[in-house]
Design a protein that fits this description.
- It is a single chain.
- By secondary structure, the protein is an alpha/beta fold.
- Helix content is about 45%, strand content about 20%.
- The chain is built from 14 helices and twelve strands.
- The strands form two sheets. The protein has a six-stranded mixed β-sheet with strand order 1-6-5-4-2-3, sandwiched between helices.
- Helix 7 packs across helix 9, helix 9 crosses helix 11 and helix 11 packs across helix 12.
- The longest helix is centred in the last third of the chain and has 21 residues.
- The radius of gyration is 20 Å and the shape is globular.
- The chain starts with a strand and ends with a helix.
Length: about 350
């Protein structure tokens, strides 16, 4: 694995500085990659006879760290491990404020902010290596690969890490019959879908899903899986009937208001239909609209497209990966967002 910022020693040095008097927090994204990263971080800390007293799964949004500094200080947190959150791109100065007030280490795989100057306390790998892979690589001497390969491989499927040949070969050491063609219905593929659906179903109680994953009790997720699958199937059918096509920009646009937060999954499924096109799935709410963007071929950078979409929009944010990204903005600015993305 290639490190773009920091390295394994950065991680080990941070762990070495933690004492029994420190109060530790783990902050991660509220998707499967964030959840799995937190599981591995918690297990690594346990091997060091340390305990994370705060574990929180966060939605990505502008100014997400503004209130977090005071909240963590009120809880007497002295060390923070962050995983799968591109906060130095989203929050900029707020991330610097967090680092200045609380000893923090960011472990991430999102593209590096081109304006990033202070690279201290950051470990970054390439986008196609998910954050869970990075955490596992950093602390693999503290983790039992035979116990946790199922979670690592499931997350690698969910994050499309398997599209890199060496990552697929790694997964095949545990699942020899795995191919790109059968991966969605394979054991890691189905495990990923069960856990990801559960995170959508229990979106107000992610701790419940976290505990299920820790206990490896996957059967408990079956009802949530089936409920979300039905919602996704309905949405993909509706997409076929009600999508807009912007042929000049090779963009498919679809707006809907689902019961569950399934836009990201719908974007992934529909984008496989025509890999050369970009698929933008918008979930419109009374106050905010969220857009999940996918381009399977990578011929258009979704990270840059989302940043272009929210340009000059108040209380907005956008970004992510080249093939998969997202944006959030005020619903009143929906037409302006569309104008931005359609500009040459």
């Amino acid at each position: 694995m290639e490190y773009l910022i920091g390295n394994k020693q950065t991680f080990l040095d941070f762990l070495e500085k933690i004492t029994e008097n420190d109060k530790i927090a783990i902050l991660s994204h509220n998707d499967l990659d964030g959840i799995a990263s937190s599981v591995f971080l918690e297990k690594i800390l346990e091997k060091k006879n340390l305990k994370a007293e705060v574990i929180e799964f966060m939605k990505i949004k502008p100014h997400m760290l503004e209130e977090k500094v005071d909240e963590l200080k009120e809880k007497n947190v002295t060390k923070v491990l962050m995983a799968d959150i591109s906060c130095e791109s989203i929050d900029g100065k707020n991330f610097e404020t967090l680092k200045e007030n609380i000893d923090t280490l960011l472990i991430d795989h999102h593209p590096i902010n081109p304006n990033l100057e202070n690279k201290d306390s950051i470990i970054k790998t390439e986008s196609h290596n998910c954050a869970t892979q990075l955490v596992f690589e950093l602390g693999k001497e503290f983790l039992d690969i035979n116990e946790w390969a199922w979670l690592l491989c499931a997350t690698m499927f969910a994050e499309f890490s398997y599209t890199k040949k060496e990552n697929l070969e790694f997964m095949k050491t545990f699942y020899p019959d795995l191919t790109e063609e059968n991966i969605a219905t394979s054991i890691p593929g189905m495990n990923a879908r069960k856990m990801s659906n559960a995170l959508l179903y229990f979106d107000k109680d992610l701790e419940h899903v976290y505990q299920i994953i820790l206990k490896k009790n996957m059967e408990e997720l079956n009802h949530a899986f089936e409920t979300i699958e039905n919602e996704i199937n309905h949405a993909t059918e509706d997409f076929s009937k009600n999508k807009e096509i912007f042929e000049d920009q090779k963009i498919y646009w679809y707006e809907f208001s689902p019961k569950f937060n399934i836009a990201s999954v719908v974007a992934t499924i529909t984008s496989k239909m025509i890999p050369d096109y970009s698929f933008l799935i918008a979930t419109t709410g009374e106050t905010y609209t969220k857009v999940s963007a996918r381009n399977q071929s990578g011929n258009q950078d979704m990270n840059l497209l989302m940043k272009k979409g929210v340009r000059e929009l108040m209380d907005s944010g956008g970004g992510g990966h080249a093939k998969a990204s997202a944006a959030r903005f005020l619903t009143k600015d929906l037409e302006k967002f569309k104008e931005n993305i359609l500009k040459e």
